[in-house]
C-alpha cells in the first residue's frame, strides 16, 4: 500500500442531505487523506451512494460543504465548481455504462477530448498507457459487447483515470460481476492504491477492505457510526449497530453459499512437496493433501478443482479469495493467523534439520551454518524463533526453489543441512539408497501444525470445514489416507486438533 500523508484531500464538513422530508445524511464530518483508501460500509439505503454523489457534486446538499484540495466543490447553495473541475473527481459505478457503439479506445478518450479539449493524439497518449497498465492494451479496438463484465468495468475505471482525477470514487464496482471476475477488478483497485491514488470505495467485499483500506467507515441510517482501521471496524467494532451489521454480512457472504451455487470447490495445493502433494510418474497429482481435498469435495457434494499454487503465493491466493480453501501443507503460524483463518489442524509435525550423521555436533555448532529450506515456507522463520527463544545463535537459512532442491543441496554438501517439516524430509530419506548416512539434528524440533487456510471472517464456511474434517476423521477416512501416505509410520495418527494452541 502506498504511503498516506495527513494532507486532507477530501473534507466533508457538517453535511446534511434530504430528499423531500426524508433526511438521508445527518451531520456528516469526514476527512480523506492523501493516498488513503477509505472504504464505506453500511446497510442498503444507509446513504453511501448519496455520500459519493455529494463528494462528486452530482447531488446538492442542505447544509455544510465539501472541499477537495481546499477548494469548495459542493455547498448548500449548489454545486460550486464547473463540469471540467468536477471531472477531477473520478467516479465508477456498479453499471459501467460504456457506449455500446464505441470501441474501448473511443469510450476512454471521449471525455478527455470533449471536456478537456485534448486532440485525439493527446487523448490517446494519456489513455493507452493506462489501458496497458490494467492489461487491456490488446482490446482497445474491441466493442463493449466483446468484453467480459470485468473487462468492461476496467474500461470504465480507465475512462475515469484518463481524466487524471485527484480522487477516485467507486460505488460497488464489483457487485454486478460474476465471482470469477471480481478479483480482476479488485486487483486494478489494488494497483491504483499502490500508485498512491486517493480513493473512496463503497463495497461489500470485506476481504478487499481488510487488505486495501487504510480506514473503514460504517454508515447506518444516514449517520457515520464508526470509523477506524479495517481490522478494528470489521473484527472488533465498538458500536452495537456496527456489530449487528458485521455479523449479518459475515453470514450472508459465506463462501459456502458460493461453493454450493457453483457446484464446485477450488482448493489450492502445492505440488512439489511429497508426500503431501506431487506429480506421479504419469503426471497425475497425488498425495495426502489431494486425497484430503477429494474427501472434502465429496462431503460437500461438489466437484473438485485443484488450483496449483506455489509456497510463496499461497497466502496471496487465500487473501484475494482466489481459492475457497488452501490445503498445501500450510503451517498455522502466528504471523499468518493475523491475515487468514485456519481450520482445525489435520496434522501435527515437527520442523527439523536433516544432516549427514557425521556432521552432527552440538546445537550451538549450527550457529551461522548454511541450512537449505524451500522458499515461501515458514520453516526458516519458525526454526529461527525457536533458536531465539533458547538464546541460541541461529543458522544461516538459504532458500531453494523446492524441498527436492533443498534436500539435494544438503546431499551434495553445498550446505550443512536441510530444514523442513519432518514428514516431507522423511520422504526424501526413504527414497535414498544411503539413507543410513542421514539423521535429523536431535536437538532441533519446532512443532508445526498443518491446517487448511481460508479467508477471514467467514465463520459459516470455517465451521462447515471443521465439521467436515472431524467427520473425515470419525468415519475412518482420515486413517486410510494417513496410512496410504505415511507408510513409514513416522507420524502418529492424531484426531484433528479442535483448537490451535501453541
Ligand atoms: N433521487 C432520490 N430521491 C429520493 N430518495 C432517494 C434518492 N436517491 C436515494 N434516495 C434515498 O436515500 C437513501 C440513501 O440511498 P443511497 O442510495 O445513498 O443508499 P446506499 O447506502 O448507497 O444503498 P445501497 O447499498 O442499497 O446502494 C435511501 O433511502 C434512498 O431510497
TrEMBL record:
Domain ABC transporter, residue spans: 10-246
InterPro entries: AAA+_ATPase, ABC_transporter-like_ATP-bd, ABC_transporter-like_CS, MetN_ABC_transporter-like, P-loop_NTPase, Solute-binding_3/MltF_N
SUPFAM superfamilies named among the record's database cross-references: P-loop containing nucleoside triphosphate hydrolases (SSF52540), Periplasmic binding protein-like II (SSF53850)
Single GO molecular function: ATP hydrolysis activity
Gene3D superfamilies for this protein: P-loop containing nucleotide triphosphate hydrolases, Periplasmic binding protein-like II
Membrane topology of this protein: Peripheral membrane protein
Domain of life: Bacteria
PROSITE patterns with a match to the protein in the record: ABC_TRANSPORTER_1, ABC_TRANSPORTER_2
Intracellular or extracellular location(s): Cell membrane
GO cellular component: plasma membrane
Keywords: ATP-binding, Cell membrane, Membrane, Nucleotide-binding, Transport
Family according to the record: Belongs to the ABC transporter superfamily.
PANTHER family per record: AMINO ACID IMPORT ATP-BINDING PROTEIN, GLUTAMATE_ASPARTATE IMPORT ATP-BINDING PROTEIN GLTL
Protein name per its UniProtKB record: ABC-type polar amino acid transport system, ATPase component
Species in which this protein is naturally found: Anaeromicropila populeti
